Amino acid sequence: MKDKVQNDMFRQKVDEKCFLKAYEIFAPKLFRHIYFRINSKEDAEDLTAQVFLKTWMYLRDSRNKIENLKNFLYKSAHNLVVDYYRKKARAPLFINKEFENKFFYKKDIVQEINSQEELRMVRDAVCRLKKDFRDVVVLRYVDGFSIEEIASITQKSKNAIYITLSRSIKELQHILKDFLI
Fold first, then answer.
1. SS3 at position 88
2. CATH code that applies to domain 93-181
3. According to CATH, where is 1.10.1740.10 located in the chain?
4. According to CATH, where is 1.10.10.10 located in the chain?
5. Please, are residues 62 and 46 in contact by the beta-carbon 8 Å criterion?
6. Model confidence at 51, in pLDDT bands (50, 70, 90)?
7. Which member of 45, 113, 132, 171 has the lowest number of beta carbons within 10 Å of its beta carbon?
8. How far apart are CA 53 and CA 138, in angstroms?
9. What is the DSSP letter of 140?
10. Percent with pLDDT over 70 in the chain
C-alpha cells in the first residue's frame, strides 16, 4: 500500500522532496535485493546509490515519465547488477554471517543451528540454479514481488514467469533432494 501511495505521489510531481521520500522507502529494499545478488556490502551500497542517481537524472528530463516507480527502480537495479557481473568475474552467491544475523530471527541454540544448516542448503541449492531461475526465485521469495511485478522487471510475460518459477521450484526440490541423500 505504501508503495502504491508513493507511486501515485511520484506521478503527480517530481521534486526533490518527493524523490527523497521515495529514497527513504525504497533504498533499504533495493540494497537488500542487490546485496543478496552480489554479496558485497560496499558494492551493493554503490549500486543502490547509482540506481537513484540514474533515476534522478532520467527524471530531470521533462520528456521522461515513470508510471510505476517501484518497477522502474528494480529494473534499474537489475540492469546494474547485470553490468556489475559483466565487469567482474562471476562470484558464487552466498549469504554471510552479517546478513544472517541482520535479517533472520534468532531462536534457541539448537533451532538456530538447524536453521543455519537449512539456510546453507537452500542458499547452495539456489546458487546451483541457472541464472534465469535464480533471478525469478530471488525476486519472488526473497524480495516478495508478485508475478506481474516480476514480469514487468524482467520484461517477460506473466505466463513465462509462472513457467520459469514452476521449473525453478522443481529444480530446487531436485537439488535439495540430492543434498539430503
1. coil
2. 1.10.10.10
3. 1-91
4. 93-181
5. no
6. very high
7. 113
8. 24
9. I
10. 75
pLDDT digits (tens, 9 = 90+) for 122-179: 777 888 889 889 889 888 888 888 999 999 988 999 999 999 999 998 988 888 887 6
Among 30-44, 95-109, 114-128, 138-152, which stretch is predicted with the lowest mean pLDDT?
95-109
Phi, psi of 82 (to 5 degrees): -60, -45
* Backbone dihedral angles phi then psi of residue 69, each to the nearest 5 degrees: -60, -45
Statement: 1-91 belongs to CATH 1.10.1740.10: yes
On whether the CB atoms of residues 164 and 133 are closer than 8 A, the answer is yes
Give CA angle at 152 (81, 49), nearest 5°: 35
C-alpha cell at 71: 518497477
Cα dihedral 97, 101, 106, 110 in deg (nearest 10):
10
Q: What is the DSSP string of 93-128?
A: ----HHHHHHHS----HHHHHHHHHHHHHHHHHHHH
